[in-house]
Design a protein that fits this description.
Blueprint lengths: L15 H5 L6 H17 L2 H21 L4 H21 L3 H14 L7 H19 L8 H17 L1
Helix pairs in contact: 3-4, 3-6, 4-5, 5-6, 5-7, 6-7
Protein name: Hpt domain-containing protein
InterPro entries: HPT_dom_sf (IPR036641)
GO biological process, one term: phosphorelay signal transduction system
Length: 160
């Protein structure tokens, strides 16, 4: 075996400068992007957009309730849908959707079977999401919505 001369070349990481040097961020471009996001968010009715997801979530719940052997598969389906709604809540100024969706995801994560009590907790989360959307509880400061979210989070802590 003969040794060959090997040269290792480390290319410059040009993206790193944008992360480590805040002066390199273009404040004008950032402001335009945020304004565009606000415009889009304001033009979309999340209630209508989320309706098919809620219907699918309800169908998965009904399947889980009717056939306990489907708890894990349908629970995963509900988890994925709740996770999607959680993201929509953040993007479209529905923090209660994000909060309730997060609570539902925490509850369902790792669920293999579902007792009657666990099924009722899942149903309560789905109903709460529907109520927040139906009552257009966007933004902060909805006292009843906050109490509902806190109650659901308490149920999740106690049942886990």
């Amino acid at each position: 075996m003969t040794k060959k001369n090997i040269e290792i070349i480390h290319p410059a990481n040009k993206l790193k400068q944008y992360i480590t040097d805040p002066r390199s961020l273009n404040a004008t471009a950032l402001a335009k992007a945020e304004a565009a996001m606000q415009k889009v968010a304001g033009s979309i009715d999340l209630t209508k957009e989320a309706d098919p997801t809620l219907k699918e979530m309800q169908a998965a719940y009904q399947t889980m309730k009717g056939d306990p052997s489907q708890a894990q598969a349908q629970g995963q389906r509900i988890y994925n849908l709740a996770h999607d709604l959680r993201g929509l809540g953040s993007n479209f100024n529905y923090p209660l959707i994000t909060r309730i969706g997060g609570s539902l995801c925490r509850f369902i994560e790792g669920l293999e079977t579902a007792s009657d009590t666990q099924l009722e907790i899942i149903r309560a989360h789905i109903d709460a999401i529907r109520a927040v959307l139906h009552n257009k509880m966007s933004g902060e400061g909805h006292a009843i919505g906050i109490q509902i979210a806190e109650g659901l989070e308490t149920l999740v802590r106690e049942e886990r």
